[in-house]
Design goal:
The protein is an alpha+beta fold. It contains two helices and five strands; from the N terminus they run E-H-E-E-E-E-H. Helices cover 18% and strands 36% of the residues. Strands 1-3-4-5-2 form a five-stranded antiparallel β-sheet. A hairpin with a 3-residue loop joins strand 4 and strand 5. The longest helix has 16 residues.
């Protein structure tokens, strides 16, 4: 584990599974969002995003690679990393099934910060400063 690495834990709920008894594929994007919002709290940056601010992270692109199944009751650990690319903010995620540490999904989302008029704007300096202090692993996915 990397020092100060962010990790988000959750359990799979019954309503998230499909007729085969595995998590429906669309839920992984929801898990990414849960982790991303929690990461903002963990980083002390929740006030940089709507509804606490007149700014919001709009999704430009998302992708998920499904590596294995998860089922009702499974404990999942979501790790993420982020970086600022000019006006864009990239998040990468890896979801592990615990306690086996089996990778079940990997993915990324690309965002742009929008102001109250839905125009792109730069992240605040404290957001950029925090992200730049975090380790980025090029081979995470």
């Amino acid at each position: 584990m990397i020092e100060n690495e962010y990790r988000f834990l959750r359990r799979v709920q019954f309503h998230e599974t499909d007729v085969m008894g595995v998590v429906h594929h669309v839920n992984y994007l929801k898990y990414f969002e849960e982790a991303r919002v929690d990461w903002l709290r963990w980083a002390g940056l929740e006030s940089t995003h709507f509804p606490q601010a007149d700014r919001m992270l709009a999704v430009l692109h998302s992708q998920v690679f499904h590596d294995g199944p998860s089922r009702f009751g499974d404990e999942l650990e979501i790790r993420l990393q982020t970086r600022v690319l000019r006006l864009k903010i990239e998040f990468q995620y890896v979801i592990y099934k615990k306690p086996e540490n089996q990778v079940i999904a990997r993915g990324s989302t690309l965002h742009v910060l929008l102001d109250g008029d839905l125009k792109p704007c730069r992240p605040e300096k404290r957001f950029i400063d925090f992200v730049e202090k975090q380790k980025w692993i090029e081979t995470l996915l």
